[in-house]
Design a protein that fits this description.
9 helices, alpha+beta, 231 residues
């Protein structure tokens, strides 16, 4: 199990998830999460994407939807079989490392059990890494690059959805991060990876010709792309 030092959890979280995974002979058990303000524990709320709808699924079933719900991505509201992490580790020096490893973990899961009990409380910190926009946020873009290649390698359905998420994150972070020095390694990596994926993107049928041409323009000149799209 993983716990973030800023967060809180119910005293029975370990027992509840452990008993679930044992009773179901599952690889992973997942609970729901609520969020609370850093100044007030009483001011809690539950976003839809943090609710674990009760059920039993294989990891590949979840992956095949294309979008991976946040309740699966965060590592802190679940219990895992230790063997799921054989030959896997969180990438050193990266943020959003949960986004980079979740598809590898889920693919190994034959059975995942979700319970809707709210056992984990995620503290919202204004100055946390997840809320700070810096060049490191480009690691999110890299995570979807890795995920798309993983989908293609393993033949998982709906890889086009993952690819569209890649380009959405590219738009969302590349021109919005602070200290936008395009000579830094993360920006170079982002442009290099985008050039590798553009040919897959051009083949997606439900993306307009205009969008395809714009993304092709990004590969040629990010600054020109920015001026045309007002990013």
């Amino acid at each position: 199990m993983f716990f973030d030092s800023d967060d809180c959890f119910e005293p029975n979280i370990v027992q509840k998830l452990y008993e679930t995974v044992q009773a179901e002979n599952a690889d992973m058990a997942v609970c729901s999460i609520d969020l609370f303000n850093e100044d007030c524990f009483e001011d809690k709320y539950i976003p839809d994407h943090f609710i674990a709808t009760p059920g039993r699924f294989s990891g590949e079933e979840i992956l095949s939807n294309g979008h991976i719900p946040t309740v699966y991505v965060t590592p802190c509201c679940k219990i895992y079989k230790k063997s799921l992490f054989d030959n896997l580790h969180f990438k050193t020096g990266r943020i959003c490392e949960d986004e980079m490893i979740v598809h590898h973990i889920l693919y190994k899961c034959k059975k995942i059990v979700l319970i809707n009990d709210i056992l984990y409380h995620y503290r919202q910190l204004i100055n946390s890494v997840s809320h700070t926009v810096s060049p490191k946020k480009l690691d999110t873009v890299y995570a979807f690059y890795d995920r798309f290649l993983f989908y293609k390698k393993m033949g998982i359905a709906n890889s086009d959805i993952v690819l569209k998420d890649y380009f959405w994150n590219l738009d969302n972070y590349y021109f919005k991060v602070k200290e936008n020095d395009e000579s830094t390694p993360r920006f170079k990596e982002c442009r290099k990876n985008t050039r590798k994926l553009i040919f897959y993107y051009l083949r997606i049928k439900d993306v307009s010709v205009k969008e395809k041409l714009l993304k092709l323009l990004f590969c040629i000149s990010p600054s020109l792309y920015k001026s045309i799209t007002n990013k």
